[in-house]
Design brief:
The protein is an alpha+beta fold. It has one domain: NADH Oxidase. It has nine helices and four strands; from the N terminus they run H-H-E-H-H-E-H-H-E-H-H-E-H. Helix 2 crosses helix 6 and helix 3 packs antiparallel against helix 4. The mean pLDDT is 95. The structure holds flavin mononucleotide. The site of flavin mononucleotide (FMN) has 13 residues, from helix 4 and strand 3.
């Protein structure tokens, strides 16, 4: 018997095509509220959601993405297998560009935690650098995203996490006008306009071992 949690987790798909309606703001806030309950290292709660509504900001992101693609295509022309690389660049461009058609576009990032165990040790010179900080914040982003996405799914919304745009767009924080947040990914949300087939997933024996 599948529980409702099992069903949400198993049936969730990344949705890249959306219906025209914009989800109610109250739903987005419910999703953000659950994201805020996620665990984080030392309860630092570093994750921030920045919804991008401004057509001007979207247009500047889109311009930056296009010029990133042009630069990559030009650089790829000088490589040993230019056609392969060109296909990859164009595929990842498609995996990025749909975000501008989504009813809701959110940039997700982290703020530097004010304190934290490894930061204190690094500041005191006990350890060299604060190596743990980056992975701690990334893990916190993953948890927050999972809660956000699953609540959306329960409400009948589809979503997709995107990191490919970060490869195309440089100085993304500057374009978004955020100083204190390091952007980790984009997130699109809307009513699903497609029912993708489930991609092959590994089984327990593939990803679990006991030592
Ligand atoms: C960290 C991360 C980055 C991703 N980046 C992109 C992206 O840039 N563009 C995209 O279309 N999908 C992206 N995805 C979605 C994955 O392609 C998707 O999760 C994977 O193919 C499995 O499909 P499923 O989510 O339907 O199970 C990303 C997912 C994760 C977790």
């Amino acid at each position: 018997m599948m529980s409702s949690l099992d069903e949400l987790l198993i049936e969730r798909r990344s949705i890249r095509t959306y219906g025209p309606e914009t989800p109610p703001e109250a739903w987005i806030e419910q999703m953000i509220n659950l994201a805020a309950q996620a665990p984080s290292s030392g309860n630092t709660q570093p994750v921030r959601f920045i919804r991008v509504n401004s057509p001007e900001v979207k247009a500047s992101l889109q311009r930056a993405m296009k010029s990133g693609r042009e630069q990559f295509l030009q650089a790829a022309a000088g490589c040993s297998k230019p056609k392969n690389l060109r296909n990859w660049i164009n595929a990842y461009y498609r995996f990025s560009a749909f975000m501008f058609q989504a009813p809701v576009l959110i940039a997700v990032g982290t703020v530097a935690p004010a304190s934290g165990f490894s930061r204190r040790l690094a500041e005191a010179g006990v350890i060299e650098a604060d190596k743990k900080r980056e992975s701690d914040t990334d893990i916190a982003v993953g948890f927050a995203l999972q809660s956000f996405i699953l609540k959306g799914q329960e409400l009948g919304l589809g979503s997709c996490i995107l990191t490919a745009p970060l490869v195309f767009i440089s100085r993304i924080e500057e374009l978004l006008g955020v100083r204190d947040v390091e952007i980790k990914c984009f997130l699109t949300v809307g009513f699903p306009g497609e029912t993708p087939r489930k991609p092959k997933k590994k089984g327990v024996a593939d990803i679990y071992r006991q030592i």
